[in-house]
Design brief:
By secondary structure, this protein is an alpha+beta fold. The chain is built from two helices and eight strands; from the N terminus they run αββββββαββ.
């Protein structure tokens, strides 16, 4: 995920000197909420961002912020190809799984990581619904190709 130089996040991570050259720190803590810019506004979260060529930052979520128990869990699966054989319950409000859609993709086809904004993108359940709906697709169980109830 490459940041735009016009981005507030880019400004914070680059910390340019008076000549505009980035002065990178090993660790950057964002102590306030900053506005998104451009394609940053199209994703739920980012894990790794590229500031300039060869300069990357990784986001580390604070531990113990989200509760272990939640209501309205949704099924997420792991695997690939035709082997979606591991299922678990996930908090639908959290960004924990890649997008997956079914529909006019072919017979018995579930498209994993459907139209990601960047490699490794994870989304919330609502964002997945929105991504699929934008292309007249549905969110489905990849093991049965049936819509989730």
């Amino acid at each position: 995920f490459v940041l735009s130089p016009a981005s507030s996040l880019y400004e914070k991570l680059c910390s340019p000197d008076s000549n505009g050259n980035c002065q990178f720190s090993n660790t950057v803590t964002l102590d306030e909420e900053i506005s998104c810019y451009g394609n940053e506004c199209e994703v739920d979260t980012v894990i790794i961002v590229q500031v300039t060529a060869g300069a990357f930052y990784e986001y580390h979520r604070k531990p113990c912020v989200q509760t272990t128990f939640f209501e309205g869990g949704t099924k997420v699966v792991s695997g690939g190809g035709n082997k979606y054989n591991k299922a678990m319950c996930a908090n639908p409000k959290m960004e924990v799984a890649a997008s997956m859609c079914c529909g006019d993709l072919g017979p018995d086809v579930a498209k994993y990581h459907y139209k990601p904004q960047y490699h490794g993108e994870v989304v919330s359940a609502q964002t997945n619904i929105d991504i699929c709906a934008a292309d007249s697709q549905t969110v489905c169980d990849p093991t049965t190709h049936e819509p989730y109830a």
